[in-house]
Amino acid sequence: MATRTACQVFRRRFSSAAAALHPSPAEIRSRRNAVFSREQERQRALYPRIEKIEVSLRGPGLDGTLLIMNKGMSTPLSCARHLTEYHVDNSALALVDGELWPLHQPLTDSCTLTLLTFNDSDPTLLNEAYWRSCSALLGQVLETAFKDDYTVELLNTLEIPVTSGAFCCDVVLDPQLDSWTPSPESLRSLTRGAQQLIHHNLAWEPLEVAPSVALEVFSHSRCKQEEVEQKASDSPKGTVMLYRCGDHVLLSGGPLVARTGLCSQYEVTAMHSLGQGPWGHHRRTQGLSLPLQLQAHHTIWRRLRQRAEKLVRTVNISVLYLTQPADRSLSAFQGLLDGCPDNCLLHVLPTP
Amino acid sequence: MRLTLQMLISHGRVARRIGLGPESRIHMLRNILTGLVRHERIETTKVRADEVRFYAEKLIDYAKKGDTDEKAMKMASFWLTEKDLVPKLFKVLAPRFENHSTGYTRMAQIPNRENLDRAQMAVLEYKGNPFPPLYPVKKENELNLINQLLKGYREERARVPNIGTP
């Protein structure tokens, strides 16, 4: 009893010191936002004079159209705005010289542009980008959902194929919440949070930054810093792509779609515990979503949603030791991968 | 004839009056039918297309009897005014419809003629013609997001068949 009052006194006396050590999530968010805006302004200031570039369009009915746009300022979205409202509403991603380009990233050189929609003949790349954006949105919802007393750490999300039925967001919650399991009501409130973001129709603003700036942005999260270092070593140019949605800055493994308003049906389906990991109690939150142009009937949605509640298993393939010569195709090992439990490591080594 | 009121009222009479009289009607339909056999898809007024349809199908039924049959040859030579189409009828159209019992033609209505008469127009064609289809088939894209999700769903159901949902 006496110890309890003593503890309370200590907590009150030293709460300001504690706050200085662990800033509140709102403060962290505003700091990240400030760094992002500063870097964005700096990159925009690199083009003080307006220079023109020629953008030639590709696509059904658009072949050969030439647009004169501004260097470092015009985005594929502004090219779409020169066409029709249909192109603005339906294009989610762009292909610039064969490379995937987020819709809000400025164009730097004369190029060929293709606007990708969900109803193309081959929307595979766009489907993957959409899945990635949905997990990013889920991560944003999780970060803002909990009270300020609890910390939330988003982990590195793996690339999940669309056929697995649900997108995932791996998260490590505060140690105080280790014994908490989410009820259907809490999942529904997370869904409502996501629907709010969709309703606000926020754009995912991309920014290509040097690793040092990214490390500064994520200065309060050791896990994110490791992710930044890993992504910087993986990328050919040594830069890292940051995205900002509203006031939330996030890191992503690939391009995201243009804005949150492109998702229409969005539900957070389940949260599974994956046991203890290097950062704490590892949880996988799963969700299901469909874009505005491809809405499902409620009967189909219900079936897909039931499937999305089951745990999505992923396999980490880092290195595989090949005893046979290097031209042996990996399809021989597919049978191995099918029945594996998640987080099993197969080692792949290239033969010298 | 007795001049009755029933003669002036045509309620329930299904036979159409085309051209100047019954003989003129047959000649007109014969010309349209010849055009149909030559081109396999023609555009005329809706009423004429509807009338020709019956004769077009009957002509194919006659052609199926074979060109050795005397009656079939007489019918073909009467109905086709351009005699180079008689071998086409027996050698191309009749074998095409070997396995069909009825329904050798298709009629589709099109917007009214631009002239002052604003006549209702239709397209009449023999099935199996080489032109693009009149009603284009809309192909569902297998690679879009919802179909990929459903593909994954079906594969999972095939891999782990449920006992049966209650």
What would a concise description of this structure say?
By secondary structure, chain A is an alpha+beta fold.
Descriptive account of the structure:
Chain B: This is Large ribosomal subunit protein bL17m. Chain B: Belongs to the bacterial ribosomal protein bL17 family. Chain B: GO terms for molecular function: structural constituent of ribosome. Chain B: InterPro entries: Ribosomal_bL17, Ribosomal_bL17_sf. Chain A is α+β, with helices and mostly antiparallel strands. Helices cover 36% and strands 25% of the residues of chain A. Chain A folds into 2 domains: 50-117, Ubiquitin-like (UB roll), CATH 3.10.20.30; 124-312, Threonyl-trna Synthetase, Chain A, domain 2 (Threonyl-tRNA Synthetase, Chain A, domain 2). Chain A is built from 11 helices and 14 strands. In chain A, strand 9 (240-245) and strand 10 form a beta hairpin. Chain B is mainly alpha-helical and 166 residues long. Chain B contains 6 helices and 3 strands. A 3-stranded antiparallel sheet of chain B has the order 1-3-2, covered by helices on one side. The A-B interface holds A 118-124, 127, 130, 162-165, 290-291, 294, 296, 300, 303-304, 307 and B 141, 143-146, 148-153, 155-156.
